[in-house]
Amino acid sequence: MAAGKSTLSKKLAAEFEAILICEDLWLSRLYADEIHTFDDYLKYSARLKEVLTPHLLDLLKQGNSVVLDFPGNVPRQRQWFRTIFEAAGADHVLHFVDVPDDLCRMRLQKRNMENPPGSKVMSQEEFTHITSFFVPPTGAEQFNIKLYPCSSAHE
Q1: N or C end of the chain, less CB within 10 A?
Q2: pTM
Q3: 109-137: per-residue pLDDT in tens?
C-alpha cells in the first residue's frame, strides 16, 4: 500500500501501449458504498477478479498487452495472476516495488490528503494491519520478477 504501484502501472501501460486495469478504480466505481472494512475489500476484490478473469483471458489471447494494477502482496494474490497468464499462454512480468514501510506511510499521508480517484482514505492502523500480511515474492513462485528497490523507486 502506497509503494507506488499505481504510478508504475500507469507508466508501464503508456510505455508498452498496454491496457491498464486498476483494481482501485473498478472497486470504487462498482462497490463504493459497500467497502468499509478490510474484509469488505477482500470480498469485493474476489468478486471483481471472478468477473474480470474471462475478460483478461480474452484480451491476452487476442495479443493485447495488459497491465494489472492489483496488489500481489501474498502468494495467493499472485497465484491469480499466474492462472491468467498461463491459461492465456501469455508472457508475464511481476513488477515488485520494494519500498520501506516508513516511505509508504509518508506517501499514504500525502495520498489521503489528495484523495485521487479510486483511492480510499486509510489510517495508519489500517496500513499496519494490511501490510502485516505482506509476503515478498520468491524465486520458488517462478515469476519473471522485475525488482524496483527503494534506491531506484520511481516517484
Answers
A1: C
A2: 0.88
A3: 998 898 787 778 888 999 999 999 999 99
